[in-house]
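Ticket #4471: structure export looks truncated?
Reporter: QA, pipeline team
Priority: medium

Steps to reproduce: submit the single chain below to the structure queue and open the exported record.
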Amino acid sequence: MTTGTSAGMRLTVLVGESDTWHHRPVCTEIVHRAHAAGLAGASVFRGIEGFGASSVIHTQRLLSLSEDLPVAVVIVDTEAKVRAFLPRIAELTGEGTVTLDACEIVRSEPDSGGRR
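Actual output as written to the record:
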């Protein structure tokens, strides 16, 4: 197996679980827009505790049942594709935080030809 790397960019959008866009979760809308834009992939991660612009701490702990836990949508692709995608989600992010990080994309490919 050979491994190749290339430069990439990671887009992370932090929103609240209860944030919606036209009656649809914002995180779902971002994933569907990323798919429609042909980006390499998108994942949604639900946090167990956090706070944002409101400074209210939201937690998953049983005694303080929160309905607005933090959610992170992470997308990785080339820098050009990620930057071109930003205007497509600008209306969705509201008070959410958007970060961009340079990253290295690692791709593993089977060796062609020889046997092990």
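Status: closed, not a bug. The export was complete when the record was re-opened. Leaving a note from the reviewer for reference: The beta strands are 2-16, 20-21, 24-25, 42-46, 49-50, 58-59, 70-77, 97-109.
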